[in-house]
Amino acid sequence: MPPIIKTQQVNKYYNRHRADEVRALADVSLTISQGEALALNGASGSGKTTLLSLIGGMARPTSGTVSILDKEVSRLPERFLADIRRQTFGFIFQQLNLIRDISVLENIQLPLYPSAIPIAEMNRRAEEILTRLDISTKARLKVSALSGGEQQRVAIARALINRPQIIIADEPTAHLDSSLAGELLEILSELNREGKTVVLATHDPFVSSHRLIDRIVRMRDGRIIGGATG
Amino acid sequence: MTRLLKILEYSLCSLARRKFKNFSIIIIYSFTIAALASILLLTHSLKEIAINVLVDGPDIVVQRLAGGRHDPIPVHYAQDIAKLPGVGRVNPRLWGYYYDSLYQTNYTILAVHQDLPSLEMVEGRMVAANGECTVGQGVAKAQNAEIGDELLLINSTGVGYSCEINGMFKARSNLWTNDLILFTEKDLQGFFAMPAGLATDITVEVFNPREIPLVAEKIKRLFPDTRPVTINEILHTYESVFNWRSGMMLTIFASSLIAFSILAWDKATGISGEEKREIGILKAIGWDTSDILTLKLSEGSVISITSFLLGISVAYIHVFLLGAPLLVPVLKGWSVLFPPLQLAPYIDMYQIFALAFLTIVPYMASTVLPAWKSAITDPESIMRGW
């Protein structure tokens, strides 16, 4: 399969040139193929989340390049990065990051508000995803009224509304019990089978050993120590 | 366009979510606008009413001074003034003030010629004979009298006096006629016990308005014991008095404007953790900085424009429908304090736009700037739950 994400000699520093300077990533080169399901594995502080942020266009590398679909994105202006985040990626965050006092439907549609997609199409897409994730009866409820598992589904629905090619998930099972974690991984497996690329960061052995995962990339102290090539 | 409309829709939804906070801001904001606008509307209306009446008034009023104080002027001065070149009609006036202790109101009593034609601003007819009078609306209200009723007063010798009301001034001339009572000359001389051959002042009409100062100078030279007051001086005095009063009130209310600014700034700079988090989420899922700014700008616009319109409406009701009960004691002239005055709704759009500019723009800036500061940070922070 052709590469969809490519990082070359990526370095990321925080608090650069200050006493508390941190080198979060060190010469990271990684290629991810289209349709692949890849797990970034490593202990806390190993650089998994930083790498996901760079891949997802949420931060820029201090040096090196990040390419998405053969386009170098690490030097693009903020406006274009926002477009790439909205059109190419679906994000599932560790903390879910839902807006608690708006409805499930509004949360799911949030990525589409700044797009040219008409409201009728937004509603059609939301209905389709809500049905697929079996939460259509909760559409008008506020997120704060949902259970943890239902909130997790809303977060997945929000990640899918823009029909992304790549799904990025950071520690997606960190706050879930094993049953909900299994359910989430099954949904991700189904999406992966439909051709979506899945990149997730985890230190949960249950996730790493799931049949969803095609490849495990191991990280330590900001470096890739195994699995860089597929 | 669809994009903008959807962001606007989301901003309305956002405002509704924080309804208690936004409602309290709207209340404080509206109060500030209402206070400032009330002062501006009231002073402008008073000035306009005064100017509208004065432009039809005499070009020069000649008073006699004795020991630096206003003193009755001999009527024969009028004949000599009338002979000056460029001078038209010259009219000695008889008038005085009367305090009605029963109703605790001040009246101005003015004598008119019995043959004076009826005026458009008078309902009924003008004074035509001794024993009759024409009154302002405030006098009629204070006395609870209508056309055809008897007006009861006490004259300068302490004896009761009554006359029949046969005419009443209409509301649009209230600033000048509200406390006015018109008598015949003979009735007024009798009421104030004034000797014949004297007038309170003399009004002078000048054919060419540009010659008014020159004619005033000539009168002063002709009669050094007089003070000719031109229409421009009267207009200038009115303007200064109302400007001074409104300036004083605006200074007092400036403190409320400052308090409001502090609140707005505090609200804006103290953007809550929840709002920061929301901005981070929106950025992380693909909102651009300009989308966030559009969102915050529309939220600020809804609050500031709603508050402004509400404040202006409250001010309009306060000043023109309720008669500005909170400002009247400071801003109106003493002679119209009693009886009450109904203001005509004159509005200076320049003042309204200036008020809009001075309140909406700072509020919008204090709303958008901190949101912009939050929006330009990398969305990575939300990824990490910072």
Give structural notes.
- The complex is a heterodimer of chains A (230) and B (386).
- With 230 residues, chain A is α/β, with parallel strands linked by helices.
- Chain A is 31% helix and 27% strand.
- Chain A has helices at 48-55, 78-88, 104-109, 119-132, 148-160, 178-193, 205-208; strands spanning 3-14, 22-33, 37-41, 63-68, 71-72, 89-92, 166-170, 197-202, 215-220, 223-226.
- In chain A, the strands form two sheets. In chain A, strands 6-7-8-3-9-10 form a six-stranded mixed beta sheet, with helices on both faces. Chain A has a four-stranded antiparallel beta sheet with strand order 2-1-4-5, with helices on one face.
- The longest helix of chain A is centred in the C-terminal third of the chain and has 16 residues, at 178-193.
- With 386 residues, chain B is an alpha+beta fold.
- Chain B has two domains: 2-53 and 240-384, no CATH class; 59-230, no CATH class.
- Chain B has 13 helices and 14 strands.
- Chain B has helices at 2-17, 19-54, 76-82, 137-143, 174-177, 185-192, 212-222, 231-269, 273-284, 289-321, 328-331, 349-375, 380-384; strands spanning 60-66, 69-71, 73-74, 87-93, 95-100, 105-112, 122-124, 132-135, 150-154, 160-169, 180-184, 198-199, 201-206, 226-230.
- In chain B, the strands form three sheets. In chain B, strands 5, 6, 7, 8, 9, 10 and 11 form a seven-stranded mixed beta sheet that branches.
Sum up the structure in keywords.
heterodimer; A: 230 residues; alpha/beta; six-stranded mixed β-sheet; four-stranded antiparallel β-sheet; B: 386 residues; seven-stranded mixed β-sheet; 14 strands
